[in-house]
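Exam revision sheet. Question 4 asks you to relate a sequence to its structure. Input first:
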Amino acid sequence: MLSVLRGIPASPGIVVGPVHLLRWEVPEVKHRLVDDGEIEAEIARLHAALDKARERLRLLRARAEAQVGPEEAAIFDVQLSILDDRELANSTVALIRQNLGAEKAFDIVLLEWRQHFARHTAAMLREKVGDLVDIHIRVLSLLLDLPDHDPVDVPPGANAILVTHDLTPSLTIQLDRNCIAAIATEAGTATAHVAILARSLGLPAVVGLRRALTALQGGEVAILDGAEGTLVVAPSESEVEAARGRMAEEAGQADERRALALSEAITRDGTRVTVRANVDIPEEAEPGAQSGAEGVGLMRTEFLVVGRPSMPDEEEQYRAYKRVVQAFRGAPVVIRTFDIGGDKLPIGGFPSEANPFLGWRAIRMCLDQPELFKVQLRALLRAAMHGELRIMLPLVVTVDEVRETRQLLEEAMAELSERRAPFRDDVSLGVMIETPAAAVACDTLVRDVDFFSIGSNDLVQYTLAVDRGNANLAPRFTPFHPAVLRLIAQVQATGAAHGLDVGVCGEMGSQPLAVFVLLGLGIRQLSVSPRSVADVKRVIRGVRIAAAEDAARAALAASTAREAETLLRRRLRAELESSAL
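Answer key, structure tokens:
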């Protein structure tokens, strides 16, 4: 029987394939007592489960190393070290000898360890809680003889639709594109970590599919539409045929989209717009450079860290930045310094916080950890020798943060000079405008920075007090709220008055309707996912700046986001229809 689960569009594309459920959660364990004569057998069961868990982790590590490299594969070393800790087995055995079943004994020990680590004063140990949860799930699943739901178990070529609650770093690194064709999660929004990664990997995705794990059994044939935000379960033959027809149609339009992506982004009345690419991982550099983008408007360096047990050293970072700069052959490449925190957390060295989006993150963390920050700055200065690299600072709210960074840049240059390492000393420094404070007071920054880049994801979140990762609030997360549009207009006007480039690098720049209003607000630089370049250029080439400016003025005067969106949609439709005549 046909059923449709509706979520939030996260990454476009259509996939027809079997559902693969990933229930990565600690199972419920019932209290079970054993007789004295059963104790040794329970201890043997425990050691067998620990051995099998080690075997699986080694397999996962080897697979990750082959696919994404040794640095990323190191995430599993932490979990292997936990399994090898003799105290873990000894504590569990002690409880088994008190006549507890092996699964309950292990459950109690892991709960105690997780509580202990969560309260620890050392941030590195607090962050091991995530690894303990993975170990907790893995070993209990073996002891309870539950299905092993690791993504690695998906058969090659299965074209599966992975359905899970959310994707943690340790799960994300296991994704194999030869097995998994699409992602659906119960949690998240279009601007959450999983959605950004799905777009980066070129995987169709739907997020915010609440209660999907309850509604599905696994193995069902389904149609995932990442553009519509739907998962059609057990479709009819005609539904499948229609979906495959749309897939073929999209494939047939590849040449047309390629030509459009490579065309110039010039409006109907002759205004040129710069369209650059967002890059999340170095592996995206080469395809991004072929996407029709004129450089990189945002490289998110935190994806070098997410899922890692340690920070990458200077040499590793230098190679990553150099690869991206060289791929774009002299075009500007804007690299954002670590925006660690919020929904992008490393495995170690970061505190657990009740509200990480408002916590110790981004430029705050970097300035409080100057030696860590200077490693990145030195790598960036060295990579700048290979092209037009620009440095961008995230979550800046005061000019003091810019000035402190410039001081650290001077120190980094002095250290490189002492080592006689080649570097550029004329690298442009810009800031992300992603809080109301930065937008309202952007005039206080103009003398100390070279450019502004509006991060629409966080600007919407902080302006509207709406968590961008909360699926329950997704309808309230809108860039068309008059407050957001007015802040963007203010930043653009201030930047233009002082001769600064002003761009937009959040997900707003990839939405056709948002592109229309941004053009009307004066924005002439956009940074989007490589897959969105053609769609963005289609809008730019189909409208007139005069029409966009009229529409933007009307949207700025609107009372609500819904009113602004409705009038923008009506005017964009009319503008595109007139261009087709």
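Marking note for examiners. The longest strand covers residues 14-22.
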